[in-house]
Amino acid sequence: MTRTRRLALAAFLFAIPVAASGCGGSTSTGAGSGQPAGTGTAGSAHRVIISGFAFHPSTLTVPAGTKVTFVNQDSTVHTATGSGGFDSGNLQHGQSYTYTFTKAGTYNYICSIHQYMHATVVVTGK
After folding, report:
1. Residue 91 C-alpha from the chain's centroid
2. What is residue 75's DSSP assignment?
3. Domain range for residue 58?
């Protein structure tokens, strides 16, 4: 798949809500499930798409209590490993990991395999 098609697919997937009951394929015991990334209300869920060797969005601002699901749409293995103790482990293409951000703060994270890939989740108070 060409990079342009991967980016178009990622943009499309980024806009589709995922049912609150789960997005499937979780590889870790992180709590909950995800919906589109962006900003939202406490208790809502969001997604970060891993595509084109980057996290989309690169900065996500959410209130405390938000579930964020990291979905690998790249053809290679990636991780979402960050401050605050979250670590997806290796995510194969199509796999996901969900983490609930319970405390306000700035959480920087990387792909531990491709350390030039980095992004941030900013968690605000409720």
Report:
1. 11
2. S
3. 3-124
